[in-house]
Amino acid sequence: MMETLRALAEPSRFQIVELLRDGPRPVGDLVHRLRLHQPQVSKHLRVLSDAGLVEARVDAQRRIYALRPEPLQELEVWLERYRRIWEGNFQRLDALLEELKDEERKSKGKKRVPTKR
Amino acid sequence: MMETLRALAEPSRFQIVELLRDGPRPVGDLVHRLRLHQPQVSKHLRVLSDAGLVEARVDAQRRIYALRPEPLQELEVWLERYRRIWEGNFQRLDALLEELKDEERKSKGKKRVPTKR
DNA sequence: TTTTTATATTCCTCTGCAAGAATATGTCTT
DNA sequence: AAGACATATTCTTGCAGAGGAATATAAAAA
To answer: What share of chain B is helix, strand, coil (3-state, %, to 5)?
Structure first.
């Protein structure tokens, strides 16, 4: 998880992942699309590979790199545990709106009671 | 997006986010739970705040930090575009299994034709 | 007003890591 | 066999950024 994040938190590597979303590509292709030097691309691919985000299929002298879904799935699972936060927030928002309506209905110039917590 | 990833790709900050998942907390609370020094926690909170992952409510001398869902939602949206990859992979896996069954059925010692591409 | 409490900021140092250059490895072509 | 081509690895340098220590800010308590 941390390794996945660290791998993605670098612009070039992020771009590589984005490119591989459309399908596997050989290194050279990535090189000229990203306009980076070949060694740096290889090094980034190494990091991505170590993080399990990417795997290579050997085709003669070329390596065709493809995305591995597992780490991204893991990320999604992690994120799901946060979903209740924004779902909760919508509840809060509803509550807030109701409160406001109530206030407005009751009295217009009423002092705001600071929402104690 | 990149800023979100960079902010999360640091163990202490990741932990802070995890702690805030259970609700808002003042800085001091985070300090003693993470067993970090207060200045480092404040600095991490600064980074998280700049990334929009966190916001502070002022309570006298204390700042109560809370998660902001937007960046995480954005992350989830980004991830969704990758879902079709693993859904697609299951298709591929099925295809692969069929292929293997075919090969096995036809001939056992057959030379592997390198999947030309 | 002075002191205490809570947090933020600054300055310094040190480590990790990304880019560059050169080279190694390995496979295809001739 | 000797190149040519595709990719990986190594070494070096430079810089961002994380931690430590000291200090600034600002509100509460005394």
So the answer is: 65, 10, 25
Pick the CATH number of A2-68 from 3.30.70.20, 1.10.3720.10, 1.10.10.10, 1.10.3080.10: 1.10.10.10
Structure token digits, residue B87 = 């859904």
**Domain boundaries in chain A?**
2-68, 69-106
The CA distance from B38 to B31, in Å, is 6
Q: Which residue of A has its CA nearest to B15?
A: A2
Rg of chain B's alpha carbons, rounded to an integer? 24
Instruction: Report DSSP letters for B17-55, one per residue.
Output: HHHHHT--EEHHHHHHHHT--HHHHHHHHHHHHHTTSEE
Separation of CA A40 and C1' D12 in angstroms? 15
Summarize pLDDT for B33-90 with one digit per residue, the tens.
Answer: 999 999 999 999 999 999 999 999 999 999 999 999 999 999 999 999 998 888 776 5
Q: Is B63 (CB) below 7 Å from strand C? A: yes
